[in-house]
Queue: 3 jobs
Job 1
Amino acid sequence: MSSHWLARKLASFTRTARLGILSAGVALSSVGAAHAAPTLTLYSAQHEQLVKLLAADFEKASGVAVRIHSGEGPEIASQLLAEGSHSPADVYFTENSPELMRLQEKGLLAKLDPATMQAVPARYSSAQNEWVGVLARENVLAYNPALIKPAQMPASLMDLAKPAWKGKVAIAPTDADFLPLVSAVVALKGQAAALDWLKGLKANAQLFDDDEGVVAAVNRGAVATGIINSYYWARLHTELGDKGTHSQIYHFGHGDVGALINVSGAAVLKSSHQPALAQKFVAYLVSRRGQELMAKSRIDFEYPLRPGVSPDPLLKPFAQLQPPALSVEKLGDDSEAGKLLRQAGLL
């Protein structure tokens, strides 16, 4: 991923008209599509392997072919804004709630069926019933115990901006997953504190293009610790095994902003040409069948949000997490986060 990618995509949120021509050239890939079958168009910013698995299972159960257009969350959200009522998309499935909030604010999302909304706890979904939470993941620190001991880890995410952490931390400010964390700092600490924190990180941190780069650097001993989403470490551990994994996970506690829980969610577009099928697909994502498939996939390593579905055993039990008291509405749409990242010189 280019280090300039996120800056370009954030700018596109306020210049979506420039992206209008994208709708004519969307590259859609078919997942087992039969020409005679009804077809659903899915815009996805979730992991491609997972989405292909879900699409294939949904087609097998329903007979509906799913065409997938994949990309990064801010990019796809900007495309949907540009396409507006002419979008070919039926469903949007993405990793971070701020992108869904942005589309909701612009009036592009349809109301979801009440049964779909009731499948997961209401705090993880739209208060207007326009998108539903599907999965969750936690912000954590990956750390290398050969370089830093657990007792030396920071009490708060905000501490990483202090001079004592110079050269000891890695971040990926151009990764789309970093945006909600900045938004959380803004919501809980204010813009001035968030900007000071980012400037401190700019002075202290090694910069990487994405969270995969951060967790790999920590694991090989290139840096003591790094800010990541929890599933990146789980994926690394699954790939390398116990012998190849030289890093561990540190969880912030006591409602610290560093323990933010990010919500992946899905929505039906008002412009959908197949609204009934779109509703059916989103309902499938929060069904027991869909949630168990994701939890057992060994691909995604996120927490299923449907009660009674257990996450992968590599993950810390969801009930033991100590996230900040921050609703998806208060977290917002990431618009301020991008501005602050640019002001701090991180974009």
Job 2
Amino acid sequence: MTEHEARRSAERDQSHEGRDQSHEGPREERNERASKENGAQVSTGIDTAGVPDAAIPELVIISGMSGAGRSTAAKCLEDLGWFVVDNLPPALIPTMVELGARSQGNVARIAVVVDVRGRRFFDNLRESLAGLEAKNVTRRIVFLESSDEALVRRFESVRRPHPLQGDGRIVDGIAAERELLRELRGDADLVIDTSSLNVHELRAKMDAQFAGEEEPELRATVMSFGFKYGLPVDADLVADMRFLPNPHWVPELRPYTGLNDEVAAYVFNQPGAKEFLDRYAELLRLISAGYRREGKRYVTIAIGCTGGKHRSVATSEKLAARLAAEGVETVVVHRDMGRE
């Protein structure tokens, strides 16, 4: 090797050594950050000093069962102008809110999808939500629910395993996930059962809840159903109208539904029917006031009878009219009407 070549080689070695040393610090910092994120050292506080309250973004947490439609719900909010983050570790939610608050109004609404793919972070969710509440951040939880049968069918159709099934069956993963999400479902502001919904129907439900410019104080869904088809899994309150005589056994009324005036008149001419409606509406006024105080903006009231055709339908219509007259934005759904 000539003297010139030796000098060039030494310069290259020195340059490589310098570059290695320059990367050493950042690499250590990255490792330290990663270890903090994997542990309990991640801060859940929100530093919004100097940021006006009006600049703190609105937050929606989207969670629920795998296969129940979380991605569809997230895409719907994204189309409505929300800033959507998928599979964000719960410990980083306050940081995301802080960044949104400092964006000078550019990020006014944030939606975060939280699911069992990030299960090692999932234990931090309750702590993060408590920190958000202490900072007066407006947050809502949307929980996507679905029946075991529907979830199994969806996983089998795409030929993918459930994220929690391990070496077991799909139903084992679903059961484990339900147990993991039990408390979060109980804290949810809005539960949507997607068992019988297609993609377009789920988007319509999300649009109905989030597309409006002005948020009402309380939104109610009054749902009639038939007990013989099972309880609605997304019901907050359930009333049973089977204490009234069944119009099904009146031949001239049997072909009609509770939307028919003669059927409705028959139902509410029975002893106890009008009294029930009056007292249940009064009870709902009390419950609605409590929901508002607790920040719950959505309630599903299920009214059931045997087949979901006569008594529950008539009562749902009357009750929804009462709620609407009192300023509650109300939607009526007759889940099982026409199934017989």
Job 3
Amino acid sequence: MASTETGPAAEAAGTADGPEADAAPAPAPAEEAPTAAQPDRSGGDLAGLEAGLDALDTKVSDRQPWLRTLAAKAVPPVVAIALVLGLWQLAYHFELKDHYLLPSPVDVARSLQDKWLEGTLLDYVWTSVSRGALGFLASVAIGTPLGLLVARVKPVRAAIGPILSGLQSLPSVAWVPAAIIWFGLSDATIYAVVLLGAVPSIANGLVAGVDQISPLYLRAGRTIGARGLTGVRHILLPAALPGYLAGLKQGWAFSWRSLMAAELIVNAADLGTGLGQLLEQGRELQDMSWVLSAILLILVVGIGIELLIFAPLERRVLRSRGLLVKS
């Protein structure tokens, strides 16, 4: 027979089962640790924020058809050339100058055609381009170690740095009379003028590139044992490459201009005929179509070297440093 509890124990049990027990607050559940199925929300938010910032910094573009890309790059210069030719033809039509002083674009094209049919046009271009390339390579061979010496040795910079800046601002044509006195009417005169015009630009460009290198790179190179020529090859020159490339571009421009100035003045039968000599022959004959043809060829060669050599190099250097996004 079951017995019932009486007394204080039963009263205590009745008190625990009463309404006050229902109103008692339940203990707070323990905070669960993040598991693999439930990752940390703060870490996920941070990763999402970083991904969003990367998406803002990165230009994502779909690959366009090559015809559209070619049109986007070719149409603006073609339009600019057409505009220049149109204004030139209008000036010829309204006779802003006499026709013998300002020939039409057709007259200049006919002059170029005559030189082409004579078989001499490519010879003129090759003579100047080969001289310019050889003079530029010699300028790089001289200007690069000179720039490194000026950039890294303080007494040398104090002594030679201002002279290099002054030589860079000196017009190249000013060296032609002195070079003629030194070397006579020879190829040495032409190359001397090219060197004196290009070497300061290349050296100053390298000095500017070295000055922009973070000291942390140089200390890291010394720490891993990159000293002397090894440090120059693997640390200094790669870090200074953007400034050095700008100096090379400017050095080529100075080489080409110096070459044209030298060829205009240094004219001899045994030197061959370059574009500068062609320009001078047109002046002597008072043939403006000839003169403008030579000017056009000089311009085309300068632009071609820039687009075919220096522009791809510059894009590659910028892309390797993350400064140019490849579409």
